[in-house]
Amino acid sequence: MNLTKNAVEAVAAQGPGGTVRVTGWRDAACTVLEVADTGPGLPPPAREHLFEAFAGSVGGTGLGLAIAYELTRNHGGRLELVKSGPTGTVFRATFPHSAETPRDP
User: Fold this and answer.
1) pTM of the predicted protein model
2) Domains of the chain
3) Which of 24, 25, 43, 62 is most deeply packed, by most CB within 10 A?
């Protein structure tokens, strides 16, 4: 939710138009969720402490990405910034399958 909210805000800050794309897929080992936007990208100072509470904020409270990072870790996953630049930003959350994860038929 936090990743999508941030993406929508980044796109909206540029005015009309823009895109937010949420994509998910599974492979043999994990489930992946990717949130991509066509916003202006994150400034380099924000990238340095991106997942630290109150340190990586760009116009917000500084908690959204820190919370998303901790929630992902608490589920055994990993949250990463894939890319960020003038054409947009992409975050990827990867969650390993557990023994209890049902397989598709």
Assistant:
1) 0.84
2) 2-96 (3.30.565.10)
3) 62
